């Protein structure tokens, strides 16, 4: 038995004849040409067993790529497209196999999810945040607001909202049940909500400031008109208050133009905040502008004054805005890696 063991060991060492080694090397070369990672791994396993110094490193590298590919396939079969994309791309970066290509090509149909992630990531870049920031408007009265600037910023907020909605609509219904899609869609809807709240908080702050500064002047004007109509004809009342009303119109010209432009912009951009903002704008204009029918002005002015006063509710809108504006994107790094990987393979696998 002691003589048999060395014999068996010697037999194992010489099991691979030069002809068999050459055959295996040819098989490896063919597998590499065919980009068949599984066949490459099998051939390298044999060669590494024969000559570890020459083949062990490439064998281990190929085994790693193959293991990543198997993980990617398992993830794909479980509808975990994020892990599948990341693992398949990692495998391809090590070994440019046909199997990795085929899987990445199948995953390319999920590019609409990447486009949605892109929109969310772009929203939170420093450049985008600086363009949209509304901080300055909370630190100065509406009479100092730059109308063009505030319109540009609110238009940009609504443009981002519409861009997110557009990408949501582009996602096929069949894919929305996948966990990855549910996660990104939830984040997208949360970002729409955050943007809407930022706009809403600024508009409420504007209404609060205008109510605080001008409500009493409107109350006095409305009271004067109402009282004088009890004593004089309407044409006489009109001549009596014309001078005071003209002064008020001139004094509040900037604010009325500000309200008009914001209301128009909200309507044109399809902002959901238009419906809550327009009643205040109409009430403000109704109380400010000259009336053709002062009896109607006196009657409808009561409701307008009530709406105007209601806006002056103690509230720290600026603190609310700062909290909303500082809320980060909550997508994990895996989703960002998924999107980057899809971009890298975009032109290889997508049909244009």
Could you please describe the fold and organization of this structure?
- The chain is mostly helical.
- It is 80% helix and 0% strand.
- Helix 2 (18-34) runs antiparallel to helix 3 and helix 3 (37-50) packs antiparallel against helix 4 (52-77).
- The two termini are 71 Å apart.
Protein traits:
disordered N terminus; mainly alpha; 352 residues
Q: How would you briefly describe this protein structure?
A:
The protein has 352 residues and is an all-alpha fold.
Helix content: over 70%
Radius of gyration: 35 Å
Gross morphology = rod-shaped
* Assembly state of the chains shown: single chain
Gap between N and C termini, in Å?
A: 71 Å
Average pLDDT, rounded to a whole number, is: 90
Order of SSEs: HHHHHHHHHHHHHHHHHH
**Beta-strand residue percentage:** under 5%
Number of helices: 18
Alpha-beta classification: mainly alpha
Described by strand count, sense and barrel closure, the largest sheet is: none
The low-confidence parts are 1-14
Strand count: 0
SSE layout and pairing:
Elements: H1 4-13, H2 18-34, H3 37-50, H4 52-77, H5 81-94, H6 98-107, H7 111-123, H8 126-132, H9 135-138, H10 147-170, H11 179-229, H12 234-251, H13 253-268, H14 274-288, H15 294-310, H16 317-325, H17 333-344, H18 346-349
């Amino acid at each position: 038995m002691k003589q048999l063991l060395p014999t068996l060991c010697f037999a194992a060492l010489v099991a691979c004849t030069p002809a068999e080694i050459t055959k295996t090397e040819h098989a490896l070369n063919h597998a590499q040409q065919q980009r068949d990672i599984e066949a490459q791994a099998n051939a390298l396993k044999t060669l590494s067993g024969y000559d570890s110094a020459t083949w062990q490193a490439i064998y281990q590298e190929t085994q790693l790529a193959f293991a990543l590919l198997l993980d990617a396939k398992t993830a794909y079969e479980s509808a975990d497209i994020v892990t599948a994309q990341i693992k398949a791309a990692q495998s391809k970066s090590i070994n440019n196999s046909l199997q990795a290509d085929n899987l990445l090509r199948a995953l390319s149909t999920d590019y609409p999810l990447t486009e949605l992630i892109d929109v969310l990531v772009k929203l939170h870049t420093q450049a985008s945040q600086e363009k949209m920031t509304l901080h300055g408007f909370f630190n100065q009265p509406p009479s100092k607001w730059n109308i063009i600037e505030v319109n540009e910023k609110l238009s940009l907020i609504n443009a981002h909202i519409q861009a997110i909605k557009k990408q949501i609509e582009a996602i096929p219904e069949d894919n929305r049940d996948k966990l990855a899609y549910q996660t990104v869609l939830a984040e997208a809807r949360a970002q729409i909500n955050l943007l809407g709240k930022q706009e809403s908080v600024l508009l409420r702050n504007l209404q609060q400031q205008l109510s605080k500064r001008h409500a009493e002047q409107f109350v006095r004007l409305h009271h004067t008109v109402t009282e004088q109509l009890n004593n004089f004809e309407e044409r006489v009342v009109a001549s009596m208050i014309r001078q005071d009303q003209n002064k008020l119109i001139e004094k509040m010209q900037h604010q009325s133009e500000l309200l008009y432009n914001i209301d128009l912009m909200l309507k044109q951009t399809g902002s959901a905040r238009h419906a809550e903002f327009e009643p205040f704008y109409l009430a403000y204009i109704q109380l400010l502008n000259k009336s053709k029918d002062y009896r109607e002005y006196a009657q409808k002015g009561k409701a307008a004054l009530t709406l105007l006063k209601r806006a002056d509710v103690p509230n720290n809108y600026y603190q609310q805005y700062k909290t909303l504006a500082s809320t980060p994107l909550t997508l994990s790094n895996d989703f960002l890696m998924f999107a980057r990987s899809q971009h890298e393979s975009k032109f290889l696998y997508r049909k244009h």
